[in-house]
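Hi W., the adenosine-5-diphosphoribose complex you wanted:
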Amino acid sequence: MNTQIPAVLTKALRSANHIAVLTGAGVSAASGLPTFREAQTGLWAQYRPEDLATAQAFRKNPKLVWEWYDWRRSLVAKAEPNAAHIALAEMARRVSKFTLITQNVDGLHQQAGSVDVLELHGNIGRTKCFHENVVIESWLETDEVPPLCPRCGGPLRPDVVWFGESLPKHAIDAAGQAAINCDLFLSVGTSGMVEPAASLLRVAAEHGALGVVINPTRIHAPAGVIQIEADAGEALTALLDQRWPQG
Ligand code: APR
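Structure:
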């Protein structure tokens, strides 16, 4: 299916000095990683978020939470970057200024060659001490679940942002600056339901950028935002071809 690119977007692609992109779980769907909120496949359909992705849940049942992330890590380990990740890495190489902001914790953007990725919600491949909040590279493997911090003996946890926790300051500040300064803002594969990431599209539009949503499902978006109802990989590849025709 050939994604139709509106003329106003083609024009913006050609004139943009700074393109900012926010990605969500939909970008990794084609890599086989379940999204969060899609009823039939979404992770949350099987679990109640408050039972897993919060510090309170971890305190109440650290083993359950650790094992759920272990399961997700096993899915990520088998996942490969897809056309969406590859197109974004290529786009970054072709524009003068490109900011990639992701809510995803799977590291697939980096695997596809993207650099300086702003990981708003952390990275499931990193582990930190629950008490000291420092990243722990290695620990003694015992039958303890979760494993224990080699420094303080406390439980280890994934280095991801849980509901109710603050985002890494450098990442959200840089993302906010990119939203303010960019000429074109692409929101790709996200339901736009979780703050503060969800506000970036509005901030960009308010500061004069052309806003674009790429999602097979229409989402709530500010007036003037273009919605391309398509798969991320197809649409992003079409954008690349539109801006830099093959051959
Ligand atoms: N291409 C583009 N978008 C897609 C595709 C696809 N192939 N498949 C699904 N989508 C869209 C869905 O329509 C949905 O709107 O991806 C979106 C995924 O939305 P969510 O599951 O809500 O994921 P996300 O927006 O990334 O969630 C944000 O919420 O649970 C927290 O921390 C978690 O980072 C996550 C945050």
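The chain has eleven helices and eight strands.

W.
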